[in-house]
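Input/output pair, single chain:
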Amino acid sequence: MQEYTGYRTKQRRKKQRKKKRLIRLLIGAFLVVVMLALLGWAFDIHPFDKGINAISSALRGVRRSISGLFKIGRRNKPFEFLPEGKKTANYLVAVTKFVGGKRLLPTLVLISYDSRDKSASVIYFPSYLEVDVPGAGEEVVSNLVETDGGRMGMCIAAVSNLMGVDIDRFLLLSDLDLRKILARLNDQYEIKVEKSMKIDDKSLKVKAVIKPGLQKMSPDKLTAYLTYCDEGQERSLIQRQTDFLPEFLGISSKSQIFNKALEIVKSVIERIETDAKTKEIAGFWQNLSLVKDTKLAQVSVPEKRVSIEDTVIHILDRKEINDFREKYVKSDYSLAGRFRIEILNGCREPGIGLDVISRISTERFSVVNSGNADNFDYTETIIRVYSQDKKILDAAESIKKAISVGKIEYTPGAQDLIDITVVVGNDCVKKHKNPKLGTNGG
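Output:
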């Protein structure tokens, strides 16, 4: 043991002597450089002066090279996109296609992000699904953009009310915009295909037969693969999208893409309909790309098939929706115990229900019914409560504040399904002559 210890001590001392010699050499070299600099300055000896400049320039080059080496693979700090004090974000993203002169909506997703634990949910809405649009009745998801003059108003109202959360920002882009984004990220992609499929995408002008297995795809072909769908194959489309999303986020997290997020967004922002700022989109994308696989959930809203004679329709499974919402939707507030309200049109103004729902917090209120009032002669908006409970009265006051009009009335008699009724009068139309369908604060 003593011999072994002595050997280790010798080696340590040997290293210390080498270190001291190196330090002495560096100090000597430094002193020589200083002396040369002083001589060049004192006697104006240009060869020395030029030599010192050359040495200084070389040292600066070495320093830049070393600094560059340390920066390789390093991501910049992501852009801030959450308003001060807010911990969650809900972005509604829709991708459209032009087919037969019609603008259809094959992809509608709610991306819900929580900064507290860096988690996210990507919630898919199948294009065949029937949803309730407050103030406008039921509509199939694929028709929402085509039938909505405001483009995203119906989507925002339906998703906000269903998921019980305010939509912070929306993005409406075409498959052509998606193709441009994918082309900026990569020239070619390797995609694992589960089943063979034929693509005849007239919107993207892509025709292809895709076989099972690992396939190399160009951005054009990949965009068609992610947005094209034959009737009845909507679930297959969602599966393709869920399979690709982790790869997309993985590519986005690489420093060479991550650090160019703002530049990429700027290159397509003019074509995209959105209420978000460029830096907000870039920041949301960057933060989403950093979400770990274990913190990322991809799910479709619960639904069930109902046969009516020879027709099969797909409707929401309302027994499952509350648990689904609590599990997957990220919110700064509890989604449980929302006040149930109905909105009735008492002034004949088309779309007034959508305008009202766009102004109130869907994190606090759930629209359980909409339709026409008993007449269309209401000059003043009535906010009717059926209980004098302080929480309900406070909720009614918040509605009045949000729509800037209205009179609160108490009608005795408990309601099993409704807490508050809003009968929209002509004063609401006058107050908001040009109803803008969108999000609160958007």
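The CA atoms of residues 144 and 154 lie 6 Å apart. Residues 1-5, 435-442 have pLDDT under 50 and may be disordered.
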